[in-house]
Write a structure and sequence with these properties.
With about 425 residues, this protein is α/β, with parallel strands linked by helices. The chain folds into 2 domains: about 140 residues, Alpha-Beta Complex (Aspartate Aminotransferase, domain 1); about 270 residues, Type I PLP-dependent aspartate aminotransferase-like (Major domain) (Aspartate Aminotransferase, domain 2), CATH 3.40.640.10. The chain contains 16 helices and 15 strands. Helix 10 links the parallel strand 7 and strand 8. Helix 3 packs antiparallel against helix 13, helix 4 packs parallel to helix 13 and helix 15 crosses helix 16. The protein is globular, with a radius of gyration of 21 Å. It starts with 17 loop residues before the first helix and ends with a helix. The model has no long low-confidence stretch (mean pLDDT about 95). The protein binds 4'-deoxy-4'-aminopyridoxal-5'-phosphate. It comes from Sphingomonas abietis. Belongs to the class-III pyridoxal-phosphate-dependent aminotransferase family. InterPro entries: Aminotrans_3 (IPR005814), Aminotrans_3_PPA_site (IPR049704), PyrdxlP-dep_Trfase (IPR015424), PyrdxlP-dep_Trfase_major (IPR015421), PyrdxlP-dep_Trfase_small (IPR015422). GO terms for molecular function: transaminase activity.
């Protein structure tokens, strides 16, 4: 373990039990393709694409070369009133793969920033078109929209909210998961479209003229992989359109091929007004996020603005040259290797392999959708989350990276995974679940 620093105290780790971690640190020193390596040289198969972001596999040469070249050519250029060529190219390339009509791309540096940017764009749009009373935002229980104030407010995870304050004027739809009606689903569950009708209830309660936007993850990822019921997103789309409410899909996880299409919007055939993205945009190699906006939202803000700045929003690093270079190289790999199509083609192999874990006693539910899975285990009596953590540790120590959310193991391997590697992921997960029982 000689490569592990002696002093771990200064780094205050995000979303981490710092004391527990530092008593028993696990870390990575290297990565390539489907694998990580620990500082002492142990290989770990990546079942999670890092943190849902490394869709093309690790340390891909075209991406690292593009970053290195950009770093040597143009280290930084502001995009406030100035810019550089590659950020325009990336925006054009993104607009070409987003659903039709979502052709305006605003760059950020993370998923959280994308979410708060999308919420601000929604508010600015409503105000621009003379609908300034529309300030209310609606999220959903069990939604994860990052950690900035807008995102935690519309998010539906109490643990991420209670230490802080939330925005006023936010309401939430019920989440769409029901074990009773949806256990062991592959793809979209048949039950639950009617839950979208709750939005009509919120409109009746608050008045449409007070509601700016609804934000949902088309498939909730971080809270355990919850695919949308058949017909649910269509209903949300119809109700929002009917009442002049913008619909935002948070595609930070589902974007870039995870569900077998560029975005979940295309996979599910429902087009929102705004899409947030990050993670797979640069294959995780450089922090970058973006918001894709439909033409009428962009035009509504731009055409109604007073002369000067149209949208008083942006980040120093919006469209950073290194991130733009990484994004362009990443999109090339996705296209050249047909990774979105590959993800679609693997869906059944993946679902068959993962649902094969069903015979284990501790399994409570298994959900698969595209190239994602949530394997929900029964909690250990009196210790919710303990089993998930034990499986995570056991798997890591036996050479497999998974992600534990409470007692659900989430899997989202790089889209380059071979069928043999899929088999290996499932075998090792099975062994870890048995060992940690
Ligand atoms: N939205 C969703 C749906 C996410 O899954 C995440 C991160 N997992 C975020 C937003 C936040 O992204 P970031 O951590 O890059 O801020």
């Amino acid at each position: 373990m000689s490569n592990i620093p002696n002093d771990l105290s200064a780094f205050w780790m995000p979303f981490t039990d710092n004391r527990g971690y530092k008593a028993e640190p696990r870390m990575f020193a290297k990565a390539a393709g489907m694998h990580y390596w620990t500082p002492d040289g142990r290989q770990v198969l990546d079942g999670t694409g890092g943190l849902w972001c490394v869709n093309a596999g690790h340390c891909r040469a075209p991406i690292t070369q593009a970053i290195a070249q950009a770093a040597g050519e143009l280290d930084f250029a502001p995009t406030f009133q100035l810019a550089h060529p590659s950020v325009f190219r990336l925006a054009t390339r993104l607009a070409a793969i987003t659903p039709e009509g979502l052709d305006h791309i605003f760059f950020t540096n993370s998923g959280s920033e994308s979410v708060d940017t999308a919420l601000k764009i929604a508010l600015a749009y409503q105000r621009s078109i003379g609908q300034g009373t529309r300030t209310r935002l609606i999220g959903r229980q069990r939604g994860y929209h990052g950690v900035n104030f807008g995102g935690v407010s519309v998010g539906g995870i109490v643990g991420n909210r209670r230490q802080f304050l939330s925005l006023p004027g936010v309401d939430h739809l019920r989440h769409t998961h029901s074990h009773e009606h949806q256990a062991f689903t592959r793809g979209q569950p048949a039950w639950g479209a009617h839950l979208a009708d709750e939005l009509e209830g919120l409109v009746a309660l608050h008045g449409a003229e007070t509601i700016a936007a609804v934000i949902v993850e088309p498939m909730a990822g971080s809270t355990g992989v919850l695919p949308p019921p058949v017909g649910y997103l269509e209903k949300l789309r119809a109700i929002t359109a009917k009442h002049g409410i913008l619909l935002i899909f948070d595609e930070v996880i589902t974007g870039f091929g995870r569900l077998g299409a560029p975005f979940a919007a295309q996979a599910f055939g429902v087009t929102p007004d705004l899409i947030t993205m990050a993670k797979g945009l640069t294959n995780g190699a450089v922090p970058m996020g973006a918001v894709a906006a439909v033409g009428f939202v962009h035009d509504g803000i731009v055409n109604n603005a007073l002369p000067g700045i149209e949208l008083a929003h942006g980040y120093t690093y919006s469209g950073h040259p290194l991130a733009a270079a990484a994004g362009l190289a990443t999109l090339d790999i996705y296209a050249d290797e047909g990774l979105f199509e590959r993800s679609a083609a693997l869906t059944d192999v993946w679902a068959d392999a993962i649902h094969g874990l069903r015979d284990l006693d501790v399994i409570h539910d298994i959900r698969t959708c595209g190239f994602v899975a949530g394997v929900e285990m029964k909690p250990k009596p009196g210790a919710p989350g303990a089993r998930g953590k034990a499986v995570f540790h056991r798997a890591f120590d036996d050479g497999l990276l998974v992600r534990a959310t409470a007692d659900t193991i989430a899997l989202s391997p790089p889209l380059i995974a071979s069928e043999a590697e899929i088999g290996e992921i499932v075998d090792r997960l099975r062994a870890a679940i048995v060992a940690a029982a």
